[in-house]
Design a protein that fits this description.
The complex is a heterodimer. In chain A, helix 4 (116-125) packs across helix 5 and helix 5 (141-154) runs parallel beside helix 6. Chain A is built from eight helices and ten strands. Chain A is α/β, with parallel strands linked by helices. In chain A, the strands form two sheets. Chain A has a six-stranded mixed sheet with strand order 6-7-8-4-9-10, sandwiched between helices. Chain A has a four-stranded mixed sheet with strand order 1-5-2-3. Chain B is mainly α. Chain B has a single domain (2-195), classed as ABC transporter involved in vitamin B12 uptake, BtuC (Orthogonal Bundle), CATH 1.10.3470. Helix content of chain B is 80%, strand content 0%. Chain B contains twelve helices and no strands. Chain B has helices at 8-33, 39-57, 61-81, 87-108, 113-121, 129-148, 150-158, 160-165, 170-188, 197-211, 215-240, 244-262. In chain B, helix 3 runs antiparallel to helix 4. Chain B is globular and about 50 Å long. Classes of the chains: A alpha/beta, B mainly alpha. At the A-B interface, helix 3 of A face helix 1, helix 7, helix 8, helix 10 and helix 11 of B.
Chain lengths: 251, 264
């Protein structure tokens, strides 16, 4: 039985605890059609943390993000934060590729703030001030993602949630994007990034969460057993692909 | 040339058309941005059911079409938001439902078929001062809602999830947009007709979006295109005897073709 967000999504005006915790998920369970997507999951996010969320397809990564953002109903547990309206969200690329009516970059930043100085500062922070009068849908993938980061900065986001933000973006643009993210964590902004590229995540973040319905690992990247992860997920995928190739594609 | 102004029915048509040209693009831009262009078509078909009720019971059809179309608009949003039926499918359901009811009621009604046709294709001569008064009130309400909720509407048009995260009451704003669309559709029936209103709601915006660099600029240019189309269309109706609704839409199409040629 899914519960409405009013029962389970709490926004506190007080600090959640003494450890700079801005976001807390306690005993979160999400079921869809009797299928357990997330099972008794708990985690805390502190100021300035750079968290990489990894796991195979169907592990519940997007469901966890949507639960944290209050975009989906949960079965049990509590999601609470003390940073109301200060959560930035950068979705997967491509959701607005074919905008029917053009929206300029400065209009998009304007959705987050009415303060023009703050809007321009946010664009400078992501090295995109030259793009302010451009149409959003005419920008490259990397530029679009930077504009979405700027939108979050303009609204003073304390936590940025990025869902596969660099899929389909060239390597050079990815490097620029990741450098911007590193700078933001130094300013105390917490970041949660979901990525299939485990190598990139391990080199980028200071905390890794390996999710597969439950949290299987939560700690520093240098202690994460990458080989075990690859054996478990990637090798399984390789074997599956080999079988498909040998048997032919069944549709 | 200005003898058109000596005819009070043409003055009423020009005033009503001008108001519609101001309001429709302001609402339509948010609908087109969300790929919801066909909502006007669905609502126009649904409003015909309301027209049928009015003709059947002998009440001014606008007064029966208005509440029925608002209910239809809310039903479309309800099916989309609460029942998980895609926007496209919920529009198709309501369009068919409205037309089916309208056809049945028109068959039962003893009023001449021409009365019903005037709502299908528009009829400038039937626009009364009473209609204009209602149109002015609805236009003021609609524009006030759009201005007051501009940021929320733009945010939802850009990304609905993001708008929810920023704390906007997305469902409420969606219901409001559907409701004012319903009101404007009904009040446009007499000028452009139920079958052509969606053209006025989309073509000026699609044309404007080809040459503009921002959302606000698109709305401004679309209003200018709609105003030009209404004025030329009504002049054509008066001097050449063309059907006003058709003439207005043809002018918007011509402007669209010019935009295609100018900006390939």
């Amino acid at each position: 039985m899914l519960k409405s967000n009013k029962e389970t999504y709490k926004i506190s005006k007080q600090p959640l605890n003494a450890n700079n915790t801005i976001f807390r998920v306690s005993n979160l369970c999400v079921d869809f059609n009797n299928y357990k997507v997330l099972d008794d999951l708990s985690l805390e996010v502190k100021n300035g943390e750079f968290i990489g969320l990894i796991g195979p397809n169907g592990a519940g990564k997007s469901t966890l993000l949507k639960s944290m953002l209050g975009l989906t109903s949960i079965s049990s547990g509590i999601v609470e934060n003390n940073i109301k309206n200060s959560i930035g969200y950068v979705p997967q690329r491509g959701f607005m590729q074919n905008q029917q009516v053009p929206i300029s970059v400065i209009e998009i930043i304007g959705l987050a703030t009415s303060d023009k100085t703050k809007a321009l500062d946010a664009l400078r922070d992501v090295d995109a001030i030259d793009l302010k009068n451009r149409k959003f849908n005419e920008l490259s993938g990397g530029q679009q993602q930077r504009i979405l980061i700027a939108k979050s900065l303009a609204s003073d986001s304390k936590l940025l949630i990025l869902d596969e933000p660099t899929t389909g973006i060239d390597e050079k643009s990815q490097d620029i994007f990741f450098e911007i993210l590193k700078c933001l964590t130094k300013r105390g902004i917490a970041i949660i990034i979901v990525s299939h590229d485990v190598d990139v995540v391990l080199n980028l973040v200071n905390r890794v969460i390996h999710l597969n319905q439950k949290i299987l690992y939560d700690g520093p990247p240098n202690e994460f057993k990458l080989e075990r992860y690859l054996t478990k997920h990637d090798n399984k995928k390789r074997i599956l692909l080999r079988h498909e190739h040998e048997e032919g594609h069944k549709c | 040339m200005l003898d058109i102004l000596n005819y009070s029915f043409m003055v009423r048509a020009l005033i009503a058309g001008g108001i519609i040209a101001l309001v429709v693009p302001a609402i339509g831009s948010f609908l087109v941005a969300r790929r919801y262009s066909l909502i006007a078509d669905s609502l126009a078909h649904f409003s015909l059911a309301g027209v049928g009720v009015g003709l059947l019971i002998g009440v001014d059809p606008v007064f029966t079409a208005l509440p029925m179309t608002i209910v239809g608009a809310i039903a479309i949003e309800y099916l989309r938001q609460k029942r998980g039926i895609s926007g496209e499918s919920s529009l198709a359901i309501m369009m068919s439902a409205g037309l089916a009811i309208a056809v049945v009621l028109a068959g039962l009604s003893s009023t001449p078929r021409s009365d019903f046709n005037s709502f299908l294709f528009g009829s400038i001569t039937t626009t009364s001062w009473n209609d204009i008064l209602i149109l002015v009130v609805v236009a003021i309400i609609s524009i006030t809602i759009v201005i007051y909720n501009y940021k929320a509407l733009l945010h939802i048009a850009f990304d609905e999830d993001s708008a929810r995260i920023y704390g906007y009451k997305v469902n409420l704003v969606n219901y409001l947009l559907a409701t004012i669309t319903a009101m404007i559709v009904v009040l446009s029936l007499r000028i452009v007709g139920g079958l052509l209103i969606s053209a006025l709601l989309t073509i000026p915006i699609i044309t404007a979006s080809r040459i503009s660099n921002s959302f606000l600029q698109t709305i401004t240019i679309a209003i200018i295109i709609a105003l030009v189309a209404v004025i030329i269309g009504l002049l054509a109706a008066f001097y050449i005897g063309m059907a006003a609704g058709g003439a207005i839409v043809i002018v918007t199409l011509l402007i669209f073709i010019v935009s295609l040629v100018i900006k390939r």
